[in-house]
Amino acid sequence: MLETQRRGFTLLEAIIVMTVMAIVAALGGPKLSAALHRRTSSSAADQFVVTHSLARATALRYGRVAQLHIDAGTRRFWVDVDTSANGIGQRATIANVRDVSGSGLVMTSTRTVLCFDSRGMAATSGSCEPGDVKVVFSDGATADTVSTTLLGKVLR
Fold first, then answer.
1. Would the CA dihedral through 84, 86, 90, 96 be positive or negative?
2. Is residue 4 part of a domain?
3. pLDDT digits (tens, 9 = 90+) for 27-86
4. Cα atoms in the Cβ-side hemisphere of radius 13 Å centred on 21
5. For a FRET experiment, which of 74, 76, 85, 150 has its CA 20 to 30 Å from that of 113?
């Protein structure tokens, strides 16, 4: 008597597995999408906090006023400082310009230029604005806010 070994799946088994996978995807898809949107605004806020810290550290390192530029219209922010040996005004961008425009976020800010003196404290000389800023990153459904105090401390 010959025994035949069956390999593979029957059509019914494949249809059942596909149905279960479709139900799981239908239930989990919206939750996954919402979580990804929340992470996008949160990631942009995290980048701003890191750039804010970089501005303070740069002022300490160079012993000169470092500026944190916030361009809400183009959704970019960056740090620059006078890097010349004798302080003649040769400004250079430190690290990279952070650009969050590709993620579909809306960015609003109450300030455009924050400055930190050689002690890392918020400064208001020249074109510098007070250190208290409120920056909001929003994708329409969720928003993440970063606020700072007059002395430049970050609040989240």
1. positive
2. no
3. 887 777 766 656 788 899 999 999 999 999 999 999 999 999 999 999 999 999 988 877
4. 6
5. 85
